[in-house]
Request: fold
Amino acid sequence: MKNGNRLNQLMPPCEADPGLPAVVRLPVKDGFGVLVGNYDPDGANRCVILTAAGCVDIRQTWPDLCIQSVETWAGPLGLISYAEERIYDIAILGPPYENYEVYGKEREAWDEFCAKTMPMKLAREALIPGQRIGVRIFQRDAVCQRVDGRLTWVTRSAAQGWMRGKAKGWQGDMDVPSFGISTDQGDISYINAFGGPILNERGQLLGIIGGYEGTGEFPVGVQPLSGLPTWAVREFLGGPDE
Reply:
């Protein structure tokens, strides 16, 4: 099935934007996340949630599984953290794959959500130092509510879930995975949906809104392919060169 047909047939009606059903909310830390990866109904589910590390509840530690409460248009999910990079403020969430007798319902709910939701495509190119591009930044006033009996993300603003803005690569440093972000209005106080997506002009996921842990409430963009550990990128995101 082509992506466009799958989008129209499986996603719920969304007043805000066809990309918003891929956005999820983490209520414990009042953050957001976004579905990425690939779902093959005849093979493996390779989808995961990207979010800011500061949005992950770490009250429980290994070997106990800390189930993260996640709200989606399709209903609640129970996920765990696969990888976290606290310095750059980015993390990967997914379903608990061990002990099916205990976590079978969580895995089934995850597979159903992924089967019905188009994940966002990752931007594979990195911002170079000093480069500025136009972006769309997820708005906090997008809310998950019932529309025609089903949960979906809608907004109360004319901007339809996104703010227009600019992303800029940090000058002189190719190794820093974060980048500067600003709105076209010039007020960064509106950029407060930590863990939410930042899209490039082609609608690809350039990064997530970070800065929650490392820099207080000063928001930055974090590029997943360079912000996460190499093993996590290859395991869950297909590798930096694929």
Confidence is low (pLDDT under 50) at residues 1-16, 212-217. The domain at 3-116 is CATH 2.40.10 (Thrombin, subunit H).
